[in-house]
Every structure is written in C-alpha cells, then in structure tokens.
Amino acid sequence: MKVSPTFELEEMLRRGGIEFLAGVDEAGRGPVAGPVTAAAVILPVGEYIRNVRDSKLLSQSQRESAAAAIKEKAIDFAVAHVQNDTIDRINILNATRLAVKTAVEKLSVKPQVILIDGKFLNLKGRTCISIVKGDSTIFSIAAASILAKTTRDALMHDYSNEFPDYSFDRNKGYLTAEHLQAIRDHGLSPIHRKSFTIQT
Predict the structure, then answer these.
(1) DSSP letters along 57-87, please?
(2) Is 74 exposed, middle or buried (0-12, 13-18, 19+ CB in 10 A)?
(3) pLDDT band at residue 121 using 50, 70 and 90 as cut-offs
(4) Residues 41, 7 contacting (CB under 8 angstroms)
(5) pLDDT for 24-39, tens place per residue?
(6) What is the CA radius of gyration of the chain?
C-alpha cells in the first residue's frame, strides 16, 4: 500500500506556535561518482503540490514538474552539494551531514524546527526532528527529496558532457553494469569517489 505524505506533523507544530519549518532530505549517498546533495525547503503549511511524494516513486518528468512548482510556492529553499573529494576525505556519513548543514544555513528564512529524513542527521544547535522514511510521510521532506534529486540529476547530466565515457546522464553515478565497464575501459574520472569499493 502506497503512503502519501501529509502536513499532519507540520500542522501540529504550527498549532504549537512554530511559524517556519524546513523539510530536509538528501540524494546521492549510494553512487560511486558525483556529489551528495541536500535540499532544505520551507513551504506554506497546507500548500499541497501535485506529485510531491518520495522522489524515487516519480518519473523524471513528474519530478521536474513538481520541483518547478515547489520552487514557485516555497517560502524559501536551498540546495547544497558536497563533492567527491570531500566525501573521500571525511566519509559519506559526515559528507551527508555537511550537505544538510550547508543547505539549512543557506536558507534566508531561519526555520524554528527542521524535519529531517532518516535517524542520524540532527544538527547541533538546531531543533530537529528526524523521521525514518520521512520522505514518504512528511510533505515538506518529500518536497526536499524532489529538489535534492532533480538538482543532483541535472548536475550529473552536465558531468556527462564533461566526461562522456561514463554515461552519467543515465546512471547518475550509480554503479550499473555499463558504468562498471566504462571504469574498466577508462579508469576513474575526476568525479569518482576513490574511497568507495569498486570491484573491477
């Protein structure tokens, strides 16, 4: 059974006096190339937007349409990338935390509460609520998941022009059979994560 995200938690917090809530999610923890990307978005509570749900459940065209609507209707939003060289230096967990922290800090409107997908990404000095599978149940987190994924996907498409041997426009840095063969044929590109295990 599919679960659709709601504003239930946001509305409860609003009734408790919280004016600005940010939903936060990331994309790109699993790939072997490219950045990890986080997005933070503050939406008007109750402002439903078509196709806002876990970004993984949407087609590319649905994600892009939803992302455009989110940007148009958001009170504020921000996206941050942490690149592969930093991932190699501080590990993917710390890089994800850094991406989340940076995205939140880039917001012009300071959120009083931050709703974060997952269970480990609380930010020091911020009031955070971590929700496992929050991108499936919390509307603002689902919106952040869409912004993170569409922004990262667009960047990987740009990288495919810079490094055409790896088909980053298709695999987005994930280790598909085609991607693995490209690594065997051409070695690692400058955007590959050298700390990740790639069995060639």
Answers:
(1) GS-HHHHHHHHHHHHHH-SEEEEEEE-HHHH
(2) buried
(3) low
(4) no
(5) 999 999 999 999 999 9
(6) 17
Q: How many residues does the chain have?
A: 200
In the chain, what are the domain boundaries? 8-186
The answer to whether the beta carbons of residues 32 and 192 sit under 8 Å apart is: yes
Give the homologous superfamily in CATH for domain 8-186: Ribonuclease H-like superfamily/Ribonuclease H (3.30.420.10)
Binning the chain into helix, strand and coil, the percentages to the nearest 5 are 45, 15, 35
Do 137 and 131 touch, CB atoms closer than 8 A?
yes
Residue 199 has pLDDT above 80, yes or no: no
Report the C-alpha gap between 182 and 165 in whole angstroms.
Answer: 6
CB neighbours of residue 87 within 10 Å: 25
Query: Rounded to whole angstroms, how far apart are CA atoms 44 and 95?
Result: 29
- H or E stretch at 26: strand 21-27
